[in-house]
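Translate sequence into structure tokens.
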Amino acid sequence: MNESIAARSRRVDAIVAGASAGGVDALIRLFSGLPSQWRLPLVVVLHLPENHASQLVEVFRQYVPFAVREAEDKAPVVPGTLYFAPPGYHLSIERNRLFSLSCEPPVLFSRPSIDVMMASAADAYGPALAGFLLTGANDDGAQGLLAIHRAGGLTAVQDPAEAQVPTMPNAAIAGHAPDCVRPLAGLRALLLNLDSAHAS
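Result follows.
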């Protein structure tokens, strides 16, 4: 499906994204220079070592002209904000659209888990959710993206041919037919279309 057609076909209230190996560079390319009047919440799980403090907020504040924060337990999901999951915790979005952090066992050797975040967001937002899955070295995110698809949301996957590590995009494509499989430039265009559609 053409990304602009997909964007026009539904209005979303939130965007979630997941990445692993190669994900920092991919996310910088995806988010750099998004407009300062950005409206939607962006919630990202990126696999990081549990025993190191995350520098993602500091790094992405150099590239994103709106609020960048680490998600906090029981804090509301605020529009116009880029959130990162803290290392060592699963990040969920509750049905009242508050964040929840937990120390449950890793899923697919990952905590935070992309699957956990995406599945909870699908429960919270239903068809008003878009999920993006990028480069990565394991299958985390495939089941979460499938949950978004089953809830009626929009699913988008980085073209495996472009991904630094194609395992994660390939696993998502094997799980269901995503609405969009595009290089990062196409996914960025989709992001902009979704944000514009939200304002209309």
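Note: Strands lie at 14-19, 42-46, 67-70, 81-84, 90-93, 99-102, 129-133, 154-158, 180-182.
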